Amino acid sequence: MEPAAGITERLVERLSCAARMTILTGAGVSHESGVPTFRGEDGLWGKYRAEELATWRAFEADPELVWRWYDYRRQLIADVNPNPAHLAIARLESACDSVVLVTQNVDGLHARAGSTAPVELHGNIWRARCTREQTTLHLPDNPLSEIPPLCPKCGSLLRPDVVWFGEPLPNDAYERADEAACSCDAMLVVGTSAMVRPAASLPLVAKHNGALVVEVNVGLTPISALIDATLVGKAGDVLPELVDRILEHTGGSKSPSSAEAAETTSR
Ligand code: OAD
Fold it and tell me: What is the DSSP letter of 150?
């Protein structure tokens, strides 16, 4: 393991040589936009009880309460903008078609920054799902005009199209994330406490399959000791510099030559 902090030339070189890169993000990447994280000092789970707001049982017991909480979060997110970390990720993606972005965030900020197809492991707060037919729909009203909202087709209750505690991840999203973790040469893990599985296992899957795994976080996490490097700092400071340096190294488009790719494979 490299001793954290500091984007070294060697690290930039190794990231630049990756033929396939996967980026896994968590709530920390949106923190500088003004979206609260879940854990830590001002984290949502320090103020609210997950079991009363983010479980199917809570929704069945009081759908109005659950929807009011999601409406509050939706309004908070609607008022903020993507930050330099989201923008740097989108810039790397547009320079390189072999970058896969996987996020645990439901805020939609990666897409607003220009990321084209983020794999959303925990759903999206701007979508709802019919509790009867399981169809999903975009629900852009802000604030919501009716709480709880009802399905425009069948009149049944809608639920937020997010993953709650005790629920499995959406199959297709998880399969794409797992495939991206298994097949990448490098993974960047940005702003996640790495405490919620299965997302938290993806960096270890990547490591196990031979990828270089580097996290960007304001502090250390349970996976820090198991991966290659931790860049300690705010994502909005570290990522723009890291992406600049990678793109400088590759001449602006991250498409490694086969020789570079071979070097990565034989690392
Ligand atoms: P957490 O709140 O658990 O962790 C946020 C991480 O971001 C912490 O490790 C912080 O140190 C780090 N962090 C904070 N600000 C940062 C910054 N400016 N730059 C870099 N890092 C920063 O959020 P997640 O790991 O995303 O799930 O949580 C995972 C899941 O737990 C969430 O998707 C949510 C939650 O319960 C569901 O709701 C299903």
Answer: B
